[in-house]
């Protein structure tokens, strides 16, 4: 499932459990519970000056949805129903990250495929292990249509349409160095240790800016209108902005 550690003002969420960190309903629920704890603890401590790092154990960051769990339902219709359930549950997890009131950094320690790739780019920054692991959207190869919010997120995070085409219409497997060169991730590093250390350093630097979390989350969602709308977030109102201003230095 996952574990959560707090180092001063940096929360470190680590995907644990099976080797591929498949996103089953239980795994999604576990991650969402950890994010809820991150949010509540940061608010209780003043709501400013925190950051989150998400990583995984072993060779995989996450290999996507738990399709074996979906197929275990018996019939084809039961499998589809289970898959739809995971897609819906995971959209709530992506929404948690898009709205989290602090900077977020994914430390991709290995393969990140399908929903695992989506989980990585739901963070503000992506640091990735360079000596092993790929980013890969497997939906085309598995004859599975993309959930609309997956495409909305990728369009929001991957600016080059040719790179987006490689990912969604070619199913290309992309290593860290190429992903950094194409702007999919921020930086590639030697191994897992270096990747996590780089992510934590970035998190510490961002947390030290002591930004108000609510303002940070508001600006993030405003800068990502397509995915925010796809996830069901309403447009920010003047009343919302006034509430945020009440906590500012003005």
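Sequence proposed for the structure above (250 residues):
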């Amino acid at each position: 499932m996952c574990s959560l550690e707090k180092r001063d003002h940096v929360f470190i969420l680590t995907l644990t459990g099976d080797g591929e960190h498949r996103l089953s309903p239980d795994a999604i629920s576990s991650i969402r519970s950890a994010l809820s704890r991150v949010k509540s603890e940061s608010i209780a401590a003043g709501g400013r000056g925190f950051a989150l790092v998400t990583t995984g154990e072993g060779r995989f960051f996450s290999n996507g949805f738990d399709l074996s769990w979906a197929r275990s339902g018996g019939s084809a219709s039961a499998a589809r129903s289970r898959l739809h359930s995971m897609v819906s549950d995971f959209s709530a997890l992506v929404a948690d990250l898009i709205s989290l009131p602090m900077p977020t950094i994914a430390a991709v320690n290995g393969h990140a495929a399908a929903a695992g790739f989506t989980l990585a780019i739901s963070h503000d920054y992506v640091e990735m292990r360079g000596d092993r692991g790929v980013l890969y959207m497997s939906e085309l190869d598995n004859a599975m249509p993309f959930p609309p919010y997956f495409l909305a997120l990728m369009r929001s995070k991957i600016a080059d349409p040719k790179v987006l085409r490689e990912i969604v219409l070619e199913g290309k497997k992309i290593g860290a160095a190429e992903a950094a060169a194409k702007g999919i991730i921020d930086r590639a590093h030697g191994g897992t240790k270096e990747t996590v250390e780089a992510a934590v350093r970035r998190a510490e630097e961002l947390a030290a800016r002591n930004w108000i979390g609510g303002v940070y989350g508001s600006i993030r969602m405003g800068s990502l209108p397509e995915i925010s709308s796809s996830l069901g977030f309403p447009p920010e109102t003047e009343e919302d902005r006034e509430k945020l201003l009440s906590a500012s230095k003005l």
